[in-house]
């Protein structure tokens, strides 16, 4: 069968293609070729700028345009060359050389890929494409999602809600504050993530500029290498084998895993609140929740997000564990693995969009939330016994424990009867009677 969305093996390129197709600019075979061409051209121009040879303005402009306008047709021509070379980076080198020949600068073709090994190109291309994907796709998506969380926290700032610890009724909280828990967690992780540098390897066959140095021993190749890599917006690793050691890339993967785990935690909480009827979900005409039960409106967006985040974390775990390991100065196991970094990335973007979609369907059910508070007057026992401790009342905890533990009939009347029977002042009793499940919500930091 011809490859199309219906015949694709991966749902990333099949079922979800229309939601993720922009990611092919960073992670497809075409994208890898495009970034390789960019690196080859930028390095060629860098050598010219550093007076290794004279480059006519016309040739410079032509090569810049060739890199900027790299097309799928160009990629196909490289694949044809690769059938002969059986080497993907060499095929890119020949493509760039053909462009130089086409603009009348054939005498300069040997300055293309000068002194380089394939990994000087790969280990700059991949981190550059990863950096761009993170900065143009991932971080905006995540920050927008966290803004949506923050907006809901503002909207629900004053909504009292029964908390649950170990699944049991606990001291009441506010729904807005519970949203801020996730806002803060994500903010902290984003801050850590943005401090991880995007690093590259650029230093010849085994990281020592051997070929560069033998050709031009008086040149400071370490400085030149640093300057070139920094011009790409990356940081050059100073001591490498043939490949970049991927430690910082692994750190990115681990940071994404932690963020994904936070989002999974959020999805499970919202799923639970929906199951408790704290949230209703907006319905859409024509949609079906269950093929057998017509009444159902399932929390599918949060379930889909959780599933995609789980897949992403499984892949990220392998990537971060495997990539920093390479036998001696290089083996090839990183090559096939690196080609898959876009897969967990795509699952994450899909999950974020599912969460956003799910949030858009939520309708707060304040009636149910308040009913749960009213049904759980026992949660004010903590408040009462703490005030009694302040008053030096004998064994207040034990008194409230005897009243409330295992007693399913604790209501406002039972609590007030207990207060009436306390051997304390009228002022303290009045103070205690003002405490309700709705107002016993404590305080939190301003937001």
Report what the structure shows:
There is one protein chain. Strand 1 and strand 2 form a beta hairpin. The strands form 3 sheets. Strands 1-2 form a two-stranded antiparallel sheet. It has helices at 17-20, 24-27, 29-49, 57-68, 72-85, 88-102, 118-155, 175-194, 210-215, 221-231, 247-275, 300-322, 333-338, 342-361, 366-374, 381-390, 396-404, 412-420, 426-433; strands at residues 160-165, 168-174, 199-200, 235-236, 279-281, 362-364. The longest helix has 38 residues, at 118-155. It has 3 domains: 20-113, Fumarase/aspartase (N-terminal domain) (Fumarase C, Chain B, domain 1, Orthogonal Bundle); 119-204 and 239-366, Fumarase C, Chain A, domain 2 (Up-down Bundle), CATH 1.20.200.10; 376-433, Ribonucleotide Reductase Protein R1, domain 1, CATH 1.10.40.30. The protein is mainly alpha-helical and 447 residues long. Helix 3 packs across helix 6 (88-102), helix 3 packs across helix 7 and helix 11 runs antiparallel to helix 12. It starts with 16 loop residues before the first helix and ends in a 14-residue tail after the last helix.
Note the main attributes of this structure.
19 helices; 60% helix; Fumarase C, Chain B, domain 1; 447 residues; 6 strands; mainly alpha
């Amino acid at each position: 069968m011809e490859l199309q969305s219906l015949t694709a093996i991966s749902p990333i390129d099949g079922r979800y293609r229309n939601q993720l197709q922009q990611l092919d600019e960073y992670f497809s075979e075409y994208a890898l070729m495009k970034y390789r061409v960019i690196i080859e051209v930028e390095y060629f121009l860098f050598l010219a700028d550093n007076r290794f040879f004279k480059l006519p303005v016309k040739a410079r402009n032509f090569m810049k345009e060739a890199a900027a306008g790299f097309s799928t047709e160009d990629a196909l021509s490289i694949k044809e060359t690769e059938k002969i070379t059986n080497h993907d980076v060499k095929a890119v080198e020949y493509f760039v050389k053909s462009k130089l020949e086409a603009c009348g600068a054939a005498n300069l073709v040997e300055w293309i890929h000068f002194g380089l090994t394939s990994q000087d190109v790969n280990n700059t291309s991949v981190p550059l494409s990863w950096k761009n994907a993170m900065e143009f796709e991932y971080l905006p998506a995540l920050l927008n999602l966290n803004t949506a969380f923050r907006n809901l926290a503002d909207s629900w700032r004053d909504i009292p809600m029964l908390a649950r610890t170990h699944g049991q009724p606990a001291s009441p909280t506010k729904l807005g504050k519970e949203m801020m828990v996730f806002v803060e967690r994500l903010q902290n992780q984003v801050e850590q993530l943005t401090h991880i540098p995007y690093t590259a390897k650029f230093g010849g066959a085994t990281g020592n500029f051997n070929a560069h140095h033998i050709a031009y021993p008086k040149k400071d190749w370490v400085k030149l290498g640093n300057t070139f890599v920094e011009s790409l917006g990356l940081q050059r690793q100073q001591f490498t084998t043939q490949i970049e050691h991927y430690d910082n890339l692994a750190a990115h993967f681990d940071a994404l895993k932690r963020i994904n785990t936070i989002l999974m935690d959020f999805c499970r909480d919202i799923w639970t609140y929906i199951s408790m009827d704290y949230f209703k979900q907006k319905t859409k005409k024509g949609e079906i929740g269950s093929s057998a039960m017509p009444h159902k409106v399932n929390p599918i967006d949060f379930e889909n997000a959780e599933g995609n985040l789980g897949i992403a974390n499984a892949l990220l775990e392998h990537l971060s564990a495997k990539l920093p390991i390479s036998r001696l100065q290089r083996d090839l196991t990183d090559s096939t693995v690196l080609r898959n970094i876009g897969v967990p990335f795509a699952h994450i973007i899909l999950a974020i969009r599912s969460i956003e979609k799910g949030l858009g369907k939520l309708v707060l059910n304040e009636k149910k939330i308040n009913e749960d508070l009213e049904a759980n007057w026992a949660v004010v026992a903590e408040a009462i016994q703490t005030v009694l401790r302040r008053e030096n009342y004998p064994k207040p905890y034990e008194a409230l424990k005897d009243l409330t533990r295992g007693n399913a009939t604790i209501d406002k009347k039972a609590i007030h009867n207990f207060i009436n029977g306390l051997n304390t002042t009228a002022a303290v009793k009045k103070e205690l009677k003002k405490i309700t499940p709705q107002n016993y919500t404590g305080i939190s930091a301003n937001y």
